Amino acid sequence: QVQLQESGPGLVKSSETLSLTCTVSGDSMRYYYWSWVRQTAGKGLDWIGRIYTTGKSQYNPSLKSRVTMSIDSSKNQLSLKLTSVTAADTAIFFCARGPRRDYFDSWGQGILVTVSS
Amino acid sequence: QSALTQPPSASGSPGHSVTISCTGTSSDVGGYNYVSWYQHHPGKAPKLLIYEVNKRPSGVPDRFSGSKSGNTASLTVSGLQAEDEAEYHCCSYAGSDNLVFGGGTKLTVL
């Protein structure tokens, strides 16, 4: 059974770059779409973007200018970079797997990232 | 795109049924049969309950069902159990490779 585990700094300074990694175990990354989703305090989920194992990516238009995703299938890892963060980017970040572009069949437990001033 | 609209909270007694709505527009919920629902117990990984409006992955009890009418999708939980107390999130394809989520609904089992 596939498992996803997010990792990275839990604290990032305002205006800096947030960098997270998701490590996938128990299955190949091939032929799946890999997404990042975040949940801000007291609010719902927010889709950040997705990347396919070919490296092709699509991002939420509201975040597109600040987001970069990459994938390393040989290491079973995907990564997220979010630049110029502010307090509004404080959230729990999840990585998720999708057999298709429209839904997710496996998720990580999430990692809380706090942006400090 | 704007977030889908879900009621912030819902509740029901054990054994009873509860329905959670998810309202969007013709550009997302109403325009595609690509609505999914997730159950999330805080601190744990969210779990897929429904995809393509009304399809259940293997292992998800048939107490969970999905439907759609116009721009509103719905998740019905029948035979409520204590472990159903969680947050529920809807998600819809919104065209141009975009996805949009709802604000989430906290379900309380009384």
Strand content of chain A: over 45%
Query: Spans of chain A with pLDDT under 50 lasting ≥5 residues?
Result: none
Q: From N to C, what is the helix and strand string of chain A? A: EEEEEEEEEEE
Main sheet specs of chain A = 7 strands, mixed
Give the DSSP E fraction of chain B (strand runs of 2 or more residues): 35-45%
| Derived structural class of chain A | mainly beta
Oligomeric nature of the chains = heterodimer
Question: Roughly how much helix do the residues of chain A carry, as a percent range?
Answer: under 10%
Uncertain stretches of chain B: none
Backbone structural class of chain B: mainly beta
The largest sheet of chain B, given as strand count, sense and whether it forms a barrel, is: 6 strands, mixed
**H/I helix tally of chain B:** 0
**What integer is the average pLDDT of chain B?**
96
Instruction: Assign an overall shape of chain B.
Output: globular
Order of helices and strands of chain B: EEEEEEEEE
Helix count of chain A equals 0
Radius of gyration of chain B: 13 Å
> What does the overall shape of chain A look like?
globular
What number is the mean pLDDT of chain A?
Answer: 95
Number of strands of chain A: 11
